[in-house]
Write a structure and sequence with these properties.
Oligomer: heterodimer
Order of helices and strands of chain B: EEEEEEEEEEE
Strand content of chain A: over 45%
Radius of gyration of chain A: 13 Å
Helix content of chain A: under 10%
Structural class of chain B: mainly beta
Distance between the termini of chain B: 36 Å
Number of helices of chain A: 0
Number of helices of chain B: 0
Largest sheet of chain B: 7 strands, mixed
Structural class of chain A: mainly beta
Order of helices and strands of chain A: EEEEEEEEEEE
Number of strands of chain B: 11
Largest interface: A-B, 27 and 26 residues
Strand content of chain B: over 45%
Radius of gyration of chain B: 13 Å
Distance between the termini of chain A: 41 Å
């Protein structure tokens, strides 16, 4: 089955700096890669996703890149703000399989002001 | 809309006791999921459902049972709780379309002593 590894487990940045979180997956058939943000005491919330027919996707300060050959994808947050502090999860899945996802272990992002 | 709600928010069980966690969604979603979240392990899929009256196993189904008698509700049961089932449980739901966002509930923190 699919296995998703996520790095780093914790990341501290200064406000205004960029943050990058990386994930690798094992199943070459995976074709859907969402990123979720989880704030303290809440459930995860989708922030951006990418499908395997796209190499990069941007939404304001957030971007995701996908390298299908190397089987890795990354989340980039620019101009970080204190409210970006949260736990971020990557996930991988196959669109045709009931939207089932396998999640990475998560990255705790701390933005210092 | 309330979105996805979970009952209860907290629960402490003794080993061997049973309980049922309730998930309800008011978005008319076809798919529903139960995950558990443990420190350093991300979210792991326990069981899921692709429609009323249907259920299927996820990554870690042992020790749990589920039922989806109504489209809006998804129940997770622990017949004989074990300390290894101490975790935070999240329910999620999504539309039938491939790749649609999973909407998560606020979670249930379960401790088994």
């Amino acid at each position: 089955g699919e296995n998703v590894e996520q790095h780093p487990s914790t990341l501290s940045v200064q406000e205004g700096d960029s943050a990058v979180i990386k994930c690798t997956y094992s199943d070459s058939a995976s074709n859907y890669f969402p990123w979720y943000k989880q704030e303290l005491g809440k459930g995860p919330q989708l922030i951006i996703d990418i499908r395997s027919n796209v190499g990069e996707k941007k939404d304001q300060r957030i971007a995701v890149t996908l390298n299908k050959t190397a089987k890795h994808f990354s989340l980039h947050i620019t101009e970080t703000q204190p409210e970006d502090s949260a736990v971020y999860f990557c996930a991988a899945g196959r669109l045709e399989y009931g939207n089932k996802l396998v999640f990475g272990a998560g990255t705790i992002l701390r933005v210092k002001s | 809309n309330a979105g996805v709600t979970q009952t209860p928010k907290f629960r402490v069980l003794k080993t061997g006791q049973s309980m049922t966690l309730l998930c309800a969604q008011d978005m008319n979603h076809e798919y529903m999921y139960w995950y558990r979240q443990d420190p350093g392990m991300g979210l792991r899929l326990i069981h899921y459902s692709v429609g009323e009256g249907t259920t299927a196993k996820g990554e870690v189904p042992d020790g749990y049972n589920v039922s989806r008698l109504k489209k809006q509700n998804f129940l997770l049961g622990l017949e004989s709780a074990a300390p290894s089932q101490t975790s935070v449980y999240f329910c999620a739901s999504s539309y039938l379309r491939q790749g649609d966002e999973q909407y998560f509930g606020p979670g249930t923190r379960l401790t088994v002593t």
